[in-house]
Each structure stands twice: as structure tokens, then as C-alpha cells.
Design brief:
Layout (H helix, E strand, L loop, with lengths): L8 E3 L3 H12 L4 E3 L6 E5 L3 H11 L9 E2 L3 H7 L4 H10 L4 E6 L8 H4 L4 E5 L4 H10 L3 E2 L14 H8 L5 E4 L10 E5 L5 E5 L5 H8 L27 E2 L9 E5 L7 E2 L6 H17 L4 E4 L7 H17 L2
Parallel strand pairs: 1-8, 2-8, 4-6, 5-9, 11-14, 12-13, 12-14
Antiparallel strand pairs: 2-3, 3-7, 4-7, 5-6, 9-10
Helix pairs in contact: 1-6, 2-9, 9-10
Length: 321
């Protein structure tokens, strides 16, 4: 839907603008919304095409999990499995700049690219009244990475969003300058009553420890769980052959464009769609009874550079096993 609306900046104090933003989001479009941390590029988190639109607007996918914004702990119960610690943190800091990485609930309606294929989901209930109003109006969980081109400085004002994204976003809700100006704290709640700060932010580890009653883990070698971390979580656990046109023997072929395959990253050769479907297709290949995977050629430009980087890393991982 992105691009079907004139790019526009609307005052977030106008109730009609909130209603219009919710209509765009329900239809699969993109709206830049202020939070207390930075402006987020919001899209419905249950729609793979809407998530692909985020990737297209930002210029390439990060292939990291996206934070899902929700109204509060009641909505979190539908997407995750919060334990008493999570409920205590939500009572203390939600709404606010704290993101919790929690076990993904089975059957949760979340696009696979949002969680990057992981069994966890990153959830936050933002305190900004504009984002809360949009969440209430849409009645949807919203994925919302920072509203800027990949690699650019995070936006804390509406004009930053316009300068970075221009017409790639359907609407910008102007709520003035963001109060915090840095991204939310991300905390992972682990087994045995342990926890870890994955990304520092406005909520300090000391404040979290005061609620949980235990100090954080120091060891950070847990793999990717949240935005800003590097790992090879996309490896599907089977040997992978790249740039394949036809499968050889017992291979599950992931197609692209005219190379149909058992499943296809994008029949229309849309790189943004391919990016949003990459994890889903790898999961299907991993679940197949076929012991090996082949992947059709993906153009090595634009979003294809990031896709091919992850595919090459996955193939290199499988060759080392």
C-alpha cells in the first residue's frame, strides 16, 4: 500500500489524523509515529506484505527481530507467554521505554520476518500518547523499527523522518520532539530466574534489578534476540546450495521469480517481498523431509545484497557442520 497515498505530515494533535493513520495501517501501509524514544516506522505486525514495506522503505532488511508495539500486558498475553517477572516489569515500566524479549506464543498471528524465525518476540508498550492512540485505534500489534533509511541516524523529529524517508512512508504523525531520543532498553527474561540486558536504554539495569530482585547476567553470548545484535540465526540446519536453477537429487528448492521451486521467495521477483519471506521459506525447507536445500539466484543489488549475504552465511554455516 506504500506509495498509494500522498506523503503527508499531519499534526498528531488532530483526532482525524489518528483515524487516518489507523486506516492506512489496517490497509497494510506505513505510518511514522512518535514514541518517547524515537519515531517508529509502523506497520501491522501480522501481515508479511506490510513488513516487506518496512524493508522497502528502509532500503534493506536488518534481518534482526523487530520490536512489536502493543497497548499493554493484556495484548502481550496473546502474542507471548509472560511469566510473573514479565508482569512485574510491565507493572513497573509499561507504558514506557522497556522492551521485553519473551517466548513466542504458539499460533500467535505475527509475520515470520518480525521475529526473524526465532522462538521469542520483542514486545514494548510505549508511553507516548500518540503511539498509544494509534494502537488503540488500529487494535493491532504494530512492528515499528526506527523511521529512517538503514544506516542513518535515528529520527527524533518529524522533519528527520521526511528527510530520510520522503515519499516512502504514507503518513508522518508529527508529535514534536521525542522525549528520550534513544532507543528503548531491551531485556531478555531467561530460565532459572536469570535475565540480561540486550540493549541499554532509558530504563537502567539497576532499576530492573530493583524490581526483579536479582542482578543481570553478564555473559552476552546468547545469539541474536533483539535489534542491534549480530549472529547467524538464519542457518536452517541442512546443507545449502546457492544459485540453483533446478534441484539436484534430494534438494528442497527455494525459488525466486521464474524459478518456481517448492516455495518461492517472490514469484514476482520483488526483493522486498523476498526479504520478508526469507525466514518463512527457510523454515519450510528445514521442515521438509528432503535432506538438502537449494536456493535460486537472487539479484545481488539493492535488497538482494542483504538477502545474498544471509544466504551465503547460512550456506557457509552448513558446510562447516
Amino acid at each position: 500500500m506504500s506509495g498509494k497515498h500522498d506523503n503527508q505530515v499531519r499534526s498528531a494533535s488532530d483526532p482525524a489524523a489518528i483515524t487516518a493513520a489507523a486506516t492506512i495501517l489496517r490497509g497494510g501501509g506505513l505510518v511514522a509515529v512518535p514514541t518517547e524514544t524515537v519515531y517508529g516506522l509502523a506497520a501491522r505486525a501480522d501481515d508479511a506484505a506490510a513488513v516487506a514495506a518496512i524493508y522497502r522503505a528502509k532500503g534493506r532488511p536488518d534481518f534482526n527481530p523487530l520490536i512489536v508495539h502493543i497497548t499493554g500486558i493484556d495484548q502481550a498475553e496473546h502474542l507471548a507467554m509472560p511469566d510473573p517477572r514479565a508482569r512485574a516489569l510491565a507493572a513497573a515500566f509499561w507504558p514506557g521505554p522497556l522492551t521485553m524479549v519473551l517466548p513466542l506464543r504458539g499460533g500467535a498471528r505475527i509475520a515470520p520476518a518480525v521475529t526473524a524465525g526465532l522462538p521469542t518476540i520483542a514486545l514494548r508498550s510505549p508511553a507516548h500518547p500518540v503511539m498509544q492512540a494509534v494502537l488503540r485505534e488500529t487494535r493491532l500489534p504494530l512492528a515499528a523499527p526506527s523511521a529512517n533509511r538503514s544506516g542513518a541516524v535515528s529520527p527524533t523529529r518529524a522533519e528527520h523522518v521526511v528527510a530520510s524517508l520522503g515519499a516512502r512512508v504514507d503518513m508522518v504523525l508529527d508529535g514534536g520532539a521525542c522525549a528520550a531520543g534513544i532507543e528503548s532498553t531491551i531485556v531478555a527474561l531467561r530460565g532459572n530466574d536469570t535475565w540480561q540486558v540486550l540493549r541499554p536504554g532509558p530504563i537502567t539495569a539497576e532499576r530492573i534489578a530493583a524490581v526483579l530482585g536479582t542482578p543481570p547476567m553478564i555473559d552476552a553470548a546468547q545469539g541474536i534476540e533483539a535489534p542491534g545484535q549480530m549472529t547467524s540465526h538464519y542457518a536452517p540446519g541442512k546443507p545449502i546450495r546457492l544459485n540453483a536453477i533446478t534441484p539436484n537429487g534430494q534438494e528442497y528448492l527455494i525459488g525466486f521469480g521464474p524459478v518456481a521451486g517448492e516455495t518461492n521467495l517472490s514469484p514476482g521477483a520483488d526483493l522486498a517481498e523476498a526479504a520478508s519471506r526469507l525466514y518463512e521459506c527457510l523454515h519450510r525447507a528445514a521442515a521438509s523431509p528432503l535432506p538438502r536445500i537449494a536456493v535460486a539466484p537472487v539479484p545481488d543489488h539493492g535488497l538482494g545484497i542483504a538477502i545474498n549475504d544471509r544466504l551465503r552465511r547460512a550456506a557457509a554455516w552448513s558446510s562447516d557442520q
